[in-house]
Amino acid sequence: MRTRFRITLLALATVFGATLAHADVTLLNVSYDPTRELYEAYNVEFVKYWQATHHEKVTIRQSHGGSGKQARSVIDGLRADVVTLALAYDIDAIATNGKLLPANWQMRLPQNSAPYTSTIVLLVRKGNPKAIKDWGDLARPGVSVITPNPKTSGGARWNYLAAWAWALKQPGGSDATAKAFIAKLYHNVPVLDSGARGATTTFVQRGIGDVLIAWENEAHLAQKELGPGKFEIIVPSLSILAEPPVAVVDKVVLRRGTRAVAQAYLEHLYSKEAQEIIAKNYYRPRDPAVAAAHAADFPKVELVTIDLFGGWAKAQATHFADGGTFDKIYSP
Amino acid sequence: MRVSQGLVAIAVAAALLPFSYAKAEPDNTNESNDPAELKQEIQDLAQRLKVLERKLEVQQEAAQAAAAETPVVKAGPKGFSLQSKDGANVIKLRGLFQIDDRYFLDNTTPASASTAILRRVRPILEGTVNDIYDFRLMPDFGGGKAIIVDAYVAARFKPSFVVTAGKFKPPVGLERLQSGADIRFVERGLPTDLVPNRDIGVQISGDVFSGHVNYALGYFNGVADGTSSDNIGDVDSDGDGDAAARLFFQPGATADNFAWRGLGFGVAATYAHTDGTATNTGLAALKTPGQVNFFNYRTGTTATFADGTRTRLVPQFFYYYGRYGILGEYVESSQDVTRVNGALTRSGRLKNDAWQVAFHWFVTGEEETFKGYTPSSSFSLAERTWGALELVARYHQLTIDREAFVGGANSFADPDTQASKASAWGLGLNWYLNQNVKFALDYDRTRFVGGAAGGGDRNDEEVLLSRVQLSF
Questions:
Q1: Closest-CA residue in chain B for A65?
Q2: Which one in A277, A288, B77, B325 has a CA-CA gap of 20 to 30 Å to A34?
Q3: Of B40, B34, B355, B65, which is closest to residue B192 (Cα–Cα)?
Q4: Is-contact B190 B354, C-beta < 8 A?
């Protein structure tokens, strides 16, 4: 009798508490810096989709910042139901260091869990006054280059590796020549922002620098919304295929009971409707039909992949870890 | 002669003129006057200025981001704490230290009872995790012992729904629910002898109707009157638990008329089925304000023990208005008991009751409240301020059921050594030197019915209790 009473009391308390905790369905999407406009548009679409298919209201909250910083925030306790970061390495860190999702997370969604891709281009001022044509021009004396800090920004790491890859591909190219080139390039960087959006602000709104190394979508955004007719996009001869991945954070959705809606949120990114939103926001869609319809927006460019650097783990250890190549060539 | 001197002067001046003219003219051989170059220089300078401004912006953003995550360290009258910037995670270190002196003025209480003691030595570790889950760990090293007094977690899902689990005060006695640092007398009144102190269990509680009503419903291991579960090793000694419930009303909690805000009244109750034995009776001795036993059931191999239902009913109230306060409660504790004396087994149901009324008056004008106190000034010889002074007075009484003494040698309690009634009045003075330090001085006089050989009355107890308290 006594034990039954206790169990009933505890069960009542747990159920009541659980009910209170899950009265509203919300998701937190922790994303990297430049995806604000993309997810603002996508979230409207997903909320409509979920309401129509599950008759349930869902509210999506967004957090944006440098990809590396965002990953550290999630490891330190930021309760992200999903992460949509700039590079797989940052989500690997959440899996390995935070133990918040399994190591095989990238296999759980199609195309390495990257529903869209992007690449790195160069944004210059109208008229291209410094005659920037390719990566090599960024190391010229007198050219001021804007790019974020690769220690905190995923985009900055793609920028760095794209430039390194170009240097490697030059006649006589080697790690030594690439390192020398990168050193000259970063010598021309007056300000290191923490994320891609900050770098865009520095170049576009503060008017600093001659060239911005940017995500393709950031470059188009700058042209279209922040400075119509004020900038030009220079597509370099070679760039890198960036595959920003997405993942459900298992430990968080387990605790919050939001696995179903979080999973659907990421799966819906592969739908035609979402791929259309992705293309309109200047991310390269995975869907072939949508990609064909928007081909004019995405010029063909020779792309290398992270495999050139032995994968993200090796690239991170070699270039961006404390004491790595970046620390050796750049001091504030 | 004058003409020739003038000519010489002119000649000297003319010779020196090129040199002075040469010194006055600035050296601008490296500067360009080309407008295009000047324009470029200005643009370069403007760019450098923009870079400096942007670097400052980025540094400020980084500093703000760092500040947003920097924990906040606080130290003050309410203790020491470390909390996250958003306040959702906090850990606090507090403490309660009480050094008492008991001096018995009557010539009956043994001289050994007059003593100085460490009444409470309690470091308190408490905090909050995730903005909802409060925890508290409070050991006590006073009185030559080391026990865990409080150890619990309380989940505040809503103000109206708080789940508490662990060891804490069951929601029963009003003065018992007041913290040891806040009680206005050195020792609590006689009614507290009949209510549980600390027990292990789970409780649902909360404030409803805009804070006008507080409810609590709990289930605990069960303890004898006036005792804590650490008296029996923090276990459920009899296999049955206590259900406890309390409803407390503060109808004027948000009233415009402040005269009503300090009114509170309610009722608490417990229900248990207790199965004691002669070696583990489930019954407790009752103490005077001087903490001397004045009543106990028969002990030893033929001890009286709890055997059946125990119920408590505790109507209670307080009223605080300005510098005045009054607190009162009545406790009725009914217990089925049995005693086996040789071949004879006697059982009965005994109803003991107690009540008290206590008055508090802040002479220096501070506001009386149930929880805490805030002196208007601190004691300082340099500034000639004296802190706060409070006078307190109470009358309290505890009556044992007469049935306890019926039956001669087979009675549940010995009338020749155990009092059947204790009536006490007390006066006290509390001097609050500041928010943290208090000096208290009480005089309590307790009169007894019974408790002496041949049906006589035990001599009165007169005790002077003093305390130095540090709490933070």
A1: B65
A2: A288
A3: B355
A4: yes
- Among residues B428, B431, B439, the alpha carbon closest in space to that of B386 is found at B431
Q: Show the tokens assigned to B398.
A: 């505890």
Contact between chains at A9 and B219 (C-beta distance less than 8 A): yes
Report the gap between the CA of A1 and the closest CA in chain B (Å).
9
Whole-model pTM above 0.90?
no
3-state SS class at A236: coil
A22 interfacial to chain B (CB closer than 8 Å)? no
Q: CA torsion sign, B227 to B230 to B232 to B238?
A: positive
For residues B223-236, give the mean pLDDT.
81
Span B395-417, pLDDT tens digits: 999 999 999 999 989 999 999 99
Strands (E), B112-188: 115-129, 133-140, 147-158, 161-168
Rounded to the nearest integer, the mean pLDDT of chain B is: 90
Nearest to B230 by CA among B144, B148, B123: B148
- How many angstroms from the chain centroid is the CA of residue A63? 12
* pLDDT of the residue at A19: 47
C-alpha pair distances (Å), B372 with each of A256, B81, B142, B182, B320: 38, 19, 22, 5, 13
Angle between helices A36-54 and A272-280 (to 10 degrees): 160
Cβ separation of A144 and B47 shorter than 8 Å? yes
Q: Is the minimum CB–CB distance between A198 and chain B shorter than 8 Å? A: yes
Task: Work out the angle at residue B345's Cα, subtended by the Cα atoms of residues B343 and B348, and round it to the nearest 5 degrees.
Answer: 165
* Least confident segment among A35-39, A214-218, A238-242: A214-218
Asked whether the beta carbons of B251 and B212 are under 8 A apart, the reply is yes
Query: What pLDDT score does B84 carry?
Result: 86
Angstrom distance (rounded) from CA A58 to CA A23:
11
- Helix/strand/coil for B36: helix
What is the interface pTM, i.e. ipTM, of the complex?
0.73
Residue ranges of E strands in A190-291:
211-215, 231-234, 238-240, 246-248, 284-285
Q: Which element (helix H / strand E) includes B371?
A: none
CA-nearest of A17, A59, A20, A232 to A130 is A232
Provide the pLDDT confidence category of residue B63 given band limits of 50, 70 and 90: confident
| Helix, strand or coil, per DSSP, at residue A103 | coil
pLDDT in tens, B140-170: 999 889 999 999 999 999 999 999 999 999 9
What's the number of CA atoms in the CB half-sphere (13 Å) around residue B232? 26
Weakest mean pLDDT among A39-43, A140-144, A328-332, B1-5 = B1-5
DSSP string for residues in B70-115: --EEEEETTEEEEE-TTSSSEEEEEEEEEEEEEEE-SSSS-GGG-E
State the pLDDT confidence band at B2, using cuts at 50, 70 and 90. Answer: very low
Q: DSSP assignment, residue A152?
A: T
- Residue B199's DSSP bridge partners are B168
**Residue numbers of B between 242 and 281 with CB closer than 8 Å to A:** 243
The answer for B 393-432 residues in CB contact with A (under 8 A) is: none
Average pLDDT over residues B330-352: 95
